[in-house]
Amino acid sequence: MPDLLTGKRGLVMGVANNHSIAWGIAQALHAEGAELAFSYQGEAFGKRVGPLAESLGGSPLLIDVDVTNEDELDACFATLADEWGSLDFVIHAIAFSDKAELTGRFINTTKANFKTSLEISCYSLIDVARRARPLMTAAGGGSIVTLTYLGSNRVTPYYNVMGVAKAALESSVRYLANDLGPEGIRVNAISPGPMRTLAGAAIGGARKTFKTTEINAPLRANATLEAIGGTAVYLTSAQGACTTGEIIVVDGGYHVLGMPQPENL
After folding, report:
1. How far apart are CA 160 and CA 74, in angstroms?
2. What is the rounded CA–CA span in Å between residue 92 and residue 144?
3. Helix/strand/coil for 138
4. For every one of its 265 residues, what pLDDT tens digit does the chain have, with 9 covering 90 and above?
5. Could you say which of 40, 158, 159, 254 is catalytic?
6. d(CA 57, CA 236)
7. How far is CA 69 from CA 76, 115, 155, 222, in A?
């Protein structure tokens, strides 16, 4: 069904480049008729995001915002309120941890990086949802979609503190879904398998993780940006009207396995 999102407006947060999961989602949403705004952090990312956003046509709304800065978050959603008056969806594709701590042992996680990882990768969703709520209420409801990973509930080498942050993020999805459900706002997460993205490359052993998933998943393939984008379309459109509080896994089926495929033992 084409044009599932015609007339809908949404904010995409977390595009880093044309390989980003957030960019794959943005392309899928645009293809279904959605009008998009993009947030980015700092001039360097702005130079990357701007041309991508413009490639979708029109004059996209671009907003510089650091999710750890309350004033910048307020300004971001004030801009959306001034420009649009309401908001139908938010794509939250934001996570961060010190690259030096995404190798080695989890026990060596520093307190400073633990706090930073949880603040940016988890608490930012709550901060964003709080500000999006009145704009979505004005639209008669809305959809908030974030991104997680299997390392939230299964030990993945080198994922370390990000696994803890994603576990907290997934719990936040459920609590937010319950809080916002009476107002018609749905909150869900997509859990892709390992992806060849800028963020994924920061994790130690990323290539081995990608290859291991690819050769062992029931579909013998990792997720594609198109598949993840299609899932986001479902969650932000009327087709997902009764889905909330869910962690939807898009990883070729890898998460169902208890051991590697026989040919890989």
Report:
1. 32
2. 7
3. helix
4. 469 999 999 999 999 999 999 999 999 999 999 999 999 999 999 999 999 999 998 788 999 999 999 999 999 999 999 999 999 999 999 999 999 999 999 999 999 999 999 999 999 999 999 999 999 999 999 999 999 999 999 999 999 999 999 999 999 999 999 999 999 999 999 999 888 776 776 677 888 999 999 999 999 999 999 999 999 999 999 999 999 999 999 999 999 999 999 999 9
5. 159
6. 21
7. 11, 15, 31, 35
Separation between Cα atoms, residue 197 and residue 21, nearest integer Å: 7
This prediction's pTM = 0.96
CATH number of 9-252: 3.40.50.720
User: What is the spatial order of strands in the sheet that 142-147 belongs to?
Assistant: 61-64, 35-40, 9-13, 89-92, 142-147, 185-192, 247-250
149 is catalytic: yes
DSSP-derived 3-state class of residue 260 = coil
- Count of helices and strands (H, E) across the chain: 9, 7
159 labelled catalytic: yes
